[in-house]
User: Fold this.
Amino acid sequence: MCPGESATEQAAPVPPAIAEDAVAQIPAESDLAVDDEIHGEGDNSSINTSSTASLIDYWGPNDEKQNDALDFNHYWMTDFLNGELTLAPIGNTPHSALDIGTGTGIWAIDFADKYPSSDVIGVDISPIQPAWVPSNCRFQIDDFEKEWTWPVDYFGLIHGRNLEACISDVPRFFEQAFAHTRPNGWIEIKEIDTELRSQSKELTDDHIYRRWYTNLVAAATRLGKEAEAARNGCITRGMAQAGYVDIVEKKWKIPIGGWSADPKLKHIGQCTLEFIDQSMEGFGLFLLKEVMGFTYEEVVVIMSEVRAALRDRTNQTYYYLHIIYARKPGSPGQDSSDSAVAA
Assistant:
């Protein structure tokens, strides 16, 4: 059950989930061995967090290394989507866009550049966005789990990415999003199911991938956050119960490491490997040491095991990317793509 969700809400009908066998196999190279794409075992410069909010409100690191990782994540995901910033059919002149959990603001900036007539707002609890941005883009430091203060029925698109383990009350999140979405406007959520999987091997419960994921989910649960929203239907249910229609869910296997025989997927895999390597200390040390009670030495050993498994290309490691988008109903005459009016 998703945080904030009642048993009745959980039982409500939702759009059909994507079957596991509907996700295509990733073509693999014939001669796979240990990869040398991760250089060293990382450093510990990213273990300190700094934020004006409490660690429970925002537990992720926001130092330079982690911010670079966020930008790298944007790069590979946009590349995977052939340069598209959204899959929702928002038209050529979206009225306005709200980027939830904007991080470094890179998605909001790119969106504002692509749609110069759109009013673009990025919101995050951590002030790590640049000062120089397009004139139609601005950032607000706020907690999106609190009461939203933007105009109702305003945004032609509400966008969120990598919000797993950031939301305490999933139904309320989508209720607020629905209220502030423009009629016939769209919401789009991009989430990575962070469980590391093997395409070539059956993993036992004591495999490092299983142990790593189990502990991360347990830590998020202790913080009162939902860490499995994409895989357990929280997102699609939340959208449907809030009132969104035309819900579409897409799901892909994303390789980790350069083991794919497909040139594009090989490049994507090299990027995701670098992204995980850059970001692992920041969230891993906090969640496992501070929340779960592991010693520093134990966490370092666990992360070393994860890195070793990621470098072993015979594992054909991957995780799932989910993209779910939906529309707020409106009358035929209402259009979410009107010219923006500055707020």
User: Anything to note?
Assistant: The beta strands are 96-100, 119-124, 137-141, 155-161, 181-198, 245-255, 317-327. The first strand starts at residue 96 and ends at 100. Helices lie at 7-11, 64-80, 106-114, 170-180, 208-222, 234-242, 263-291, 296-311. The chain has a mean pLDDT of 84.
